[in-house]
Amino acid sequence: MLSGAKPRARKSAVPTRRPADLSAFLAAGPVVPGAPALVTSAGDALSYAALHASVARAAAQLPAAPVAVAVADPAGILVAALGVLAAGGVLVPTRDDAVARRAGAALVVTAAALDGALEVRSAGGLATPLDPAPVGRPAVAAPDRVATTPSPAAPPLALDPRAALVLATSGTSGAPRLVVLSRDGLAANIAAILEYLPVRAHPRTAVVLPLQYAYALVGQCLVGLAAGATLLLLGDLRFPAAQAEAMARLGASGLSSVPTSLRLLSEAGAPPLAYVASAGAPVDPRDLRAWFPGARLFNQWGLTEASPRVTAVGDTEEAFDAGSVGRPLTGIEVTARRTDGTPCAPGELGELYVRGPSVMLGYHGEPTTVLTPHGLRTGDLGRVDARGFVYLAGRADDVVKIAGERVGLDEVAAALARLPGVAQAAALAVPDRWTGARLEAAVVLAPGADLADVRRAARAALPAARRPARLVAVASLPLTSRGKLCRDTLRRLLEEP
Amino acid sequence: MTPDEVLSEVRALTHEFAEVGDDDPLDLESLEVVQLAEAVEARFGLVLSGRDLVPEYFGTIRRLAAHVAYLREHRR
Q1: Is the CB of A240 less than 8 angstroms away from the CB of B50?
Q2: Up-side HSE of residue A108: CA atoms within 13 Å toward CB?
């Protein structure tokens, strides 16, 4: 499907817009002469020169407005994503049209060829006034026509004019939250990551995570492209053994992922690597050393709301072996605070706040109470020692991280309770060696309802990370005398075979 | 636990992710593959490794059940 053919400069009557400056996200050329920018899991390569041409071609088909990217293959996502940024638009990576519309995106890119040809449709799911071009041929729509595409719903709230990227993340309310990140914040985070991650010295970076996560999209892909690295795009391979094989075949030298995936890749025979970086869930530093002997190791902490990287530590530091996630990156300040907002003493447990240029602009369309005068309130508990090293200590509320994604237990319970046939629902997180935590839920069925129907409905209504791995029917939910859910009793109830 | 009982348990665990027939291809996302493996691990008291997460074992419910039965026999 993807071709490495060099695209021709597009000649048309469309007036050429001055493309936005992409230098913070895409280097002019490779750090190793002749090395490609992208390599797909099938081995197709795209040079930096060709990627620049593809991105310019994609940008010429896009408005300077929010655009949803729902492309399936990782290389296509990057061509479309960089095209949106080059067009001066706002990137909204999502396959959910409701999210696209909430972010103000009238247009969804559904496919992007390596040569920059896009396939687009309306976010309303209706026929668009555009003539969507099939992959392999240039779209014929002029940008001014795209910009006037009427929105099928009520006009959405305007995004912050500084916005460049909108990422959907689950919050404590029902619908996903839209994290609005600025262009300058992304650029600052990418530059700060490149101060410690040896991407330029070891530029063949394996990207194994889905690109809708900030970790993969910003923390790996844009970081790698800004450094002139070669991204090995392996996220479309479903099984760790296939990813490990491709890493060996394509000569990967660096890898960043979540602990789950790092362990599985190691066991599945990943080749020796120059560096390995972990983030997204707690990891035992001894495990990292055992999984990737000989590699330079990094432990990191971040969150989507911070573009995403906040702290990092290399394995030459003592704090790495003590389990620290590191010190704040350049320009970032992390403080632990007590519940009354006063700063903790060194080593004292508190809630972690982050201040710096890469902190989000806010959640789109809702009050952003986590942006405080002290900075971004992360919901993560931790300690900051006298030298500034951060040690994490779990979550400050009933929000758990499932494979790196923040999931609210109340949000899951509320979504389950809304399903037909469910009278009441409760969710809890159980420790999971691989994903950090895993969801289990209990439902009280409505009279005559069938648990199998509820499971089916839950699958349709909830994305994988927010879907309980186990769903059981109970006669009643255990409540405390004050009518609140008693999670400990529920836990024992769910432990029964 | 008989092989039929293992199959029935694996079917129940898998149906949390995809309600497919025992011999239908299991079209799961990579995160779902990991979650299903974890559920299997918890239910059967097994330790799976990255080498167990391959299409040969996770391709269909029946193949997964057969692999679980094998592991129960040889790894406990």
Answers
A1: yes
A2: 23
Dist. CA A46–CA A465, nearest whole Å:
32
What sign for the dihedral angle of Cα A453, A454, A460, A461? Answer: positive
Residue A480 token pair: 């405390």
Burial of A427 (0-12, 13-18, 19+ CB in 10 A): buried
Instruction: Tell me the β-bridge partners of A372.
Output: A375
Inter-residue contact A230 to A223 (CB < 8 Å): no
- Please provide the DSSP assignment of A75-97 as one string: HHHHHHHHHHHHTT-EEEE-S-H
What is the pLDDT, as a whole number, of residue B72?
A: 87
Domain residue spans in chain B? 3-74
Nearest CA of chain A to the CA of B70: how many Å? 19
- Name every chain B residue with its beta carbon within 8 A of the beta carbon of A434: 34, 37-38
User: Would you state the pLDDT for residue A142?
Assistant: 39
pLDDT at A387 over 80: yes
Structural contact between residues A383 and A344, judged by C-beta atoms closer than 8 angstroms: yes
Burial string for A117-130 (b: 16+ CB within 10 Å, else e) reads: bbbbbbbbeeebeb
CATH architecture of the domain formed by B3-74? Orthogonal Bundle (1.10)
**ipTM for the complex?**
0.78
Question: How far apart (Å, rounded) are the C-alpha atoms in residues A306 and A355?
Answer: 9
More confident residue, A144 or A490: A490
Identity of the residue numbered A147? A
Q: What tokens were used for A330?
A: 């350049």
- Give Cβ neighbours of residue A66 (< 8 Å, ≥ 6 apart): A89, A90, A92, A100, A103, A104, A105, A106, A159, A163, A166
Give the angle subtended at the CA of A143 by the CAs of A115 and A55, to the nearest 5°: 25
Please tell me the distance from the alpha carbon of residue A120 to that of residue A111, in angstroms, as a whole number.
7
Cα A57 to chain centroid, rounded: 26
How far away is chain B from the Cα of A437, in angstroms, using its nearest Cα? Answer: 10
Record the tokens describing residue A451, joined without a space.
Answer: 């648990």
Rounded mean pLDDT of A200-222? 92
pLDDT value of position A484: 57
Q: Kindly report the nearest CA distance between residue A238 and chain B, in angstroms.
A: 5
Other CB atoms within 10 Å distance of the CB of residue A386: 8
How far is residue A231's CA from residue A9's CA, in Å, rounded to a whole number?
24
Task: List the one residue out of A458, A456, A426 whose CA is nearest residue A442.
Answer: A426
How many angstroms separate the Cα of A283 from the Cα of each of A62, A102, A291, A301, B17?
41, 35, 12, 11, 26
* Alpha carbon distance A466, A468 (integer Å): 7
The full set of domains in chain A, from first to last, is 183-397 (3.40.50.12780), 400-495 (3.30.300.30)
